[in-house]
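Our platform keeps sequence and structure together, in a single record for each protein. Nothing more is needed to write down the fold, since each code stands for a local backbone conformation. An entry from our holdings is shown next, in its original layout:
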Amino acid sequence: MAVLVALLSLLVAGVLGNEFSILRSPGSVVFRDGNWPIPGERIPDVAALSMGFSVKEDLSWPGLAVGNLFHRPQATVMVLVKGVDRLALPPGSIISYPLQDNFTSLFCKETGG
């Protein structure tokens, strides 16, 4: 149980209401506050880059900044909420970015849903 809690606390991202929201991230991952749209198909790349992995195509999106390269998260938790325009998320350190396109179809392809 302690391992699960540790993994969930590392990086939590959500996709809802045509928004990509960062609910929690460690200090080694820096998401900048701004209104930069992101293509839905690039969200897996954001997750990979935030964990220190490389991606096939450069991501020239200013929302993700370089953080501490030696302390990367070990896991990413992504939650897709379908059928809801907006969730009442607690105020604070949540950062949201608009999606340029539909992420739902990509998510369903990857999970077989």
Q: What stands out?
A: Helices lie at 2-8, 43-50, 104-111. The chain has one domain: 2-111. The radius of gyration is 14 Å. The beta strands are 12-16, 19-24, 30-31, 64-65, 77-80, 95-98.
